[in-house]
Amino acid sequence: MIVNKSDIASDNQKSLQDHQDKFDFLSNSLAKSEINVDDLVNKLADFQVAIPSWALGAGGTRFGRFSYGGEPGTLEQKMDDVGVIHSLTQTAGAISLHIPWDIPTDYEAIKQKAAQHDLNFDAVNSNTFQDQKDAKESYRNGSLSNTSDAAREQAVQHNIDVIEIGEKLGSKSLTVWLADGINFPGQGNFQSALQHTEDSLKKIYNSMPEDWSLFIEYKPYEPNFYSTVIQDWGTSFMLANACGDRAYTLVDLGHHLPNTNIEQIVATLMLKGKLGGFHFNDSKYGDDDLTVGSIKPYALFLIFNELVQGMQHNPQNPYPAWMIDASHNIKDPLEDLIQSLEAIQEAYAKAMLIDQNKLMEAQAANDVTLCQEIIQSAYRTDVRPILEKARLERGGALSPIKAYRNLKVRETLIKERGLHSVASGL
Ligand code: LRH
Ligand code: MN
């Protein structure tokens, strides 16, 4: 299914005037605070978030999976679905592949498909948390940290294979997330597990092309429930420093113990030039992989406040990689991803309304109330007309969810693929 610009334009017609009225009102009120709204629109339009190839079908939990109908059964169909999301939102210009769930069979065809949908290949993800059927060694007791030399070598080689796949597609980064850990006290030796992991990551890092980056993703628990080798940002930061200048920490918002101050972690990593990127999602309890901004939108805003400040004041940190990492147990995966993109753009736009210099002055003066007033007035501003303008200017939908439904995308996908097609991934 292709959603073309003329379909979107005709669907926008009925709400164009209402959008323009709201946009003009917002521009005038922001102009009073010397905020150039066109600048915000351009920054948003350039802001592209990668869609995870493993989150285009109905996910599921160990308690069950509810198929959604019309799911993409091939990598080509997954890219078509990312193409639909990008056509409507104009902010999903990249896909992040997970190997071996999405090994391309025909690289030229896949690259043509990407060009057709104006998509780039963001980070490729390795998978040493599942055993492949023809694998010689098992990852039951870990991969890069495994006590078995053979198992570690197999896991390192897998990451090298993933880099080669990424190179053929034009990707420039590898994300490593390890499930490695233990379930019981005494089951393993913390120090040898960490040392094995560091030595293995160095082998992977040294096999990367000169212009590639390594993203090391941390997680406190699951699937191991007593200890995880790369459990927190500090461990990932330490390993990234041990690897080299092009190794960074990747922050998955769901990978924090309750009430962790993630915005402080972001500020710290940017100051040290080690923030590689994000896996955006939201959560109430654990790694719930829920729609971005659906549970803690203010926390997401505070994270973007640190990002905007860091992008203005930390040239030592590279431009972060923006990716979503969610799974959809009960919602239409494409609608869920569209809502997540909206929440990310909204948090970014609100954070860009903060006068960072005024805020730093108030912080230096310890004027606590003024600090709060500066950030909260930005948060309380309805920035949606700016998001609409950014989409409209690139041929996207004023309201992507409404357009998705008006254009009967899911119904068409079910007609094309049937009710029982299943997407590989989570
Ligand atoms: C681990 C994780 C990781 C992916 C997986 C699909 O929880 O966040 O980023 O490899 O989800
Ligand atoms: Mn993740």
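The first strand starts at residue 50 and ends at 52.
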